[in-house]
Amino acid sequence: RRCLNRIKKTQHLNAYISVTEDLALKQAQEAETRLLQGAPKGPLDGIPFAVKDNFCTKNIRTTCASRMLRDYTPTYNATVVQKLLDQGAVLMGKTNMDEFAMGSGSTDGAFGPVRNPWTYAAPYREQTGAAQDTDWVITGGSSGGSAAAVASLTSYLALGSDTGGSTRNPGALCGVVALKPTYGLLSRHGLIPLVNSMDVPGILTRTVNDAATVLGILQGLDIRDSTTIAAPSPVTELPEDFDVKNICVGIPKEYHAPSLSEETLAQWSHVADMFERAGARVEQVSLPHTQYSIVCYSVLCRAEVASNMARFDGLEYGHCSEVDRSTEAMYAATRHEGFNDVVRGRILSGNYFLLKQNYEHYFVKAQKVRRLIANDFMHVFRSGVDVLLTPATLTDAARYSDFTREDNRTRSAQEDVFTQPVNLAGLPAVCVPTALSRRGLPIGLQLIGPALQDKKLLSVAHWIE
Ligand code: GLN
């Protein structure tokens, strides 16, 4: 009830697209009975959680923040949602996002932008004297609603999706813990796809230990997703006495991006020094193909988007235009009315990259570059590096008015420079909040680990938390 009340009090954040109040109260009551009988289902019994609106939820509308799916109600739960429900966790609602998870701001959904809860907290107000109605800052995205839900204490955990940084970016900008697990460790069944070869369900929580608990429950093989892999070991409590003395922390030199803010750079050095003082080996390493990752991602993302979005034709799911001159005209009108310009732009360019005469030059070449980027990480980890420490975002959260300025539009792709390569390589990464900026907004750092070393990664993250 307290969480539901907070959802009402924080409606101005626009974090939720649907609030499942009746269901939540019923589930909470059932959980309470179990707890009073001393028979909880597990550590998440009765814990409120929120789900990004691109995970299918049975009998609960799932919109992807798009006019196309405004009234779409799935008949089944995504595997990760079902696993949380099976544990007795209480679904509070579906969270706001960028349309079809395309974006880095949570400013591009059909239900309006999400506001960062830190806008309304004392540090930001005192430091900037900002007017809350006009000077509010973005959450980052595309899982901004999920990050805002955890940061504003309306849920204890939230599911996001992460294709190029969409869980870690808003996690860092909203000051919560954000985990992108190894590709395949969590089932994508029921997650409406953006880029199948990169999508992973992401976990947003208040603490690293909470993220580990949720990972332990969600990971593992799913017969409904052929890309899932068996979990290497059960994730249980993280060690409290994890010793960083014998670990090697790599600092990728290519991540000194020109537009990295001084404050974030200072935080990055500060935490690297912390590791060094505690006896870890801190080494500069090189990931030479980083510079190609944004273009490589753009080509592969758009190509997969073009084929994924073909299913939205006005017949099978969602919106159907009233234009009925011909089948082609109906398709075209449905897609024009249903998708925003970001989605339409990606479909068009994706189809261009996939044209017979362009396929080799763009798509096949991008796949080769993807392999080079993944190999960079592999070489570094093989050389004895345990984790990489990097910034999560270039700066703290931008003001909405600055982020959406026309001349800034193309910058949006640059926002993901530190997170995207990780998806191209399928590796686990976690962002943890480490400081507040001078403007009173969270700064987070990212740790990246070798494939399937999610638990060790979280143990290191727990150490800096
Ligand atoms: N910002 C990237 C994009 O727009 C990544 C999005 C994501 O991770 N879902 O594609």
How many E-type strands? 11
Strand content: 5-15%
Q: Which strand order do you get reading across the main beta sheet? A: 1-3-2-4-6-5-10-11-9-7-8
Using the coordinates above, name the CATH class of the domain at 2-240 and 429-440. Alpha Beta
Structural class assignment: alpha/beta
Bound molecule types: glutamine
Order of helices and strands: HEHEHEHHEHEEHEHEHHHHEHHEEH
**Could you name the ranges where pLDDT drops below 50 across 5 or more consecutive residues?**
none
Describe the main β-sheet briefly. Answer: 11 strands, mixed
From the structure above, extract its key features.
465 residues; alpha/beta; Amidase signature (AS) enzymes; eleven-stranded mixed sheet; 15 helices; 11 strands; globular; binds glutamine; protein biosynthesis
Overview of the molecule:
The chain is globular. It is an alpha/beta fold. It has a domain of 251 residues: Alpha-Beta Complex (Amidase signature (AS) enzymes), CATH 3.90.1300.10. Helices cover 36% and strands 13% of the residues. The protein contains 15 helices and eleven strands. Strands 1-3-2-4-6-5-10-11-9-7-8 form an eleven-stranded mixed sheet, sandwiched between helices. The mean pLDDT is 95. The protein binds glutamine (GLN). Glutamine binds next to β4. The site of glutamine (GLN) has 14 residues, from β4.
